[in-house]
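Thread: quick sanity check before group meeting

JM: Hey all, I'm pulling together slides for Thursday and realized we never actually wrote out the predicted structure for the chain we discussed last week. Dropping the sequence here so it's in one place. If anyone has concerns about the input, flag it before I start.
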Amino acid sequence: MAQLRQDADPGEAGLDVKALDRLDGHFAGLVDEGRLPGFLLAVTRGGRVAHLTTHGLRDRAAGLPVEADTLWRIYSMTKPVTAVAVLLLMEEGLLSLDDPLERHLPAFTEPRVYDGGEGATVRTRPAARPVLLRHLLTHTAGLTFGFYHSHPVDALYREAGLEYSVPPGKDLAETADVYARMPLQFEPGTQWNYSVASNVLGRVVEVVSGQPLDAFFAERILRPLGMTDTGFHVRPGQQSRLAELYGETEDGRIEPVPGLPVLGRPRFLSGSGGLVSSAHDFHRFMEMLRRGGELDGIRLLSSAAVTLMTRNHLPDSATIRAFGAPGHQEPGNDGLGFGFNVSVVTDPSRTLSPSSMGAYGWTGAACTAFWVAPALDLTVQFMTQVRPRKLKVFPDLRRLVHAAVTG
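JM (edit): ok, ran it. Output follows.
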C-alpha cells in the first residue's frame, strides 16, 4: 500500500496559501452542512504535490475519517483508463482506431439508426456508415444510456434491461450483445452523446487481447504504474479503507445507497465505471498522462498517443454542449470539446468556471473529478462519495483552484 503525501511547499510551487485555505473552507463547509461526508483534495504542480487536504468522514455511521489511503469508487474516471488500454493495443498494431467495430464484435454488423416513432412504433434504417472504434472513444457512435429519459432509443434501452447500463446477471460479453441489438440514435460520427460506449470498448479490449478486462488492466496499466490499490474490486485487506457510498436526497441531505458490487470480483467488468482507486494511484495515472505517457522510466504510451487522446475530436470544432442531445446539455460545457474519454478545453472564455486552454479530464458519478492543465503544469483530483441530485462540485472546484494559481 502506497499513500499520497505532500512533497512541495505551496508558495514555492506557485500557489497562494490564503486561496488554498478558501478552497478547503468551501468544501469543509459542505461537510459541515451535511451535503458531503468528507473529501480528499490534491493539487500538484510540476509533478509535486503542493496541497493535500483530507476532511470529514469516509463512513459516517462508523465514524471513520477520510485518510490519504482511502479507497474510492471512481465511476466514470474509469473511462480514461479504458482509452489508454485501447491506445496500447493500437500502438502494438493489434487494432486501428478506424477499424469498424464489427471487425472485433460481429454482433455490431449492419447497425441500424433511429428513424422516428417511439415504443412499438419505432422505425429504423440501415446506418450509412459503420461504427468505428474512434467513435466509441469520442462518444459519437450513436449509443446512449437508458436513464436519460429524453429519446425513444433511451426507452428501448430500459425495455432491454439497460436502465443502469447492464442487464442483471450478465457479463461484459453478454451485455455488449444486448447493446448491439439497440438502434443508434444518429449516424456514427455526426453527434456527441455520452453513452455506454466505454463498456463496448472494454469488450473490444478483451477480444483483441485475449484477456479479461481486469487482467489486461492489471498487467498492462496498473502494475506498471504502481497502482496497487486500483481494480474492479477491493481485496479483503483493503475493505476497511473503502469509503461508504452516499446519495443526495431531495432535501439536500445524504444517506447510504448501494453501488456497483466491489467486495468481490464482479461478473460485469465495466470499462465505463467499474474501478476503485486511491489518491496515490490516480495521481500516478495523471502523472503518466502529464508526462506524455511515461512515469519513473516506464513508458506506457508514446507522447504522440497521449497527444491524440487529449485533443478535441468533435467535428467542426463543436463543443460538448453544442452536441449534447436535448436534456443532456449541462451548463458549463460551452468551451469544452472531447478527446478520447476526456473533455478538453477548447475556449476558456466560454467555460463558466476559469480554465486553461488544452486542460483535460473527467468526473465520476459520485462527485469525483480530475483534470490535467498542461499550460499551468497543474493536476488536480477531488475524491468524495456522493451520488448527486442538485449538488454541483466541479464548477466551484475549478474556480477556487484557479484562484490559487499564482505562477
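AS: nice. The longest helix spans residues 17-32. The chain is about 30% helix and 15% strand.
JM: adding both to the slides.
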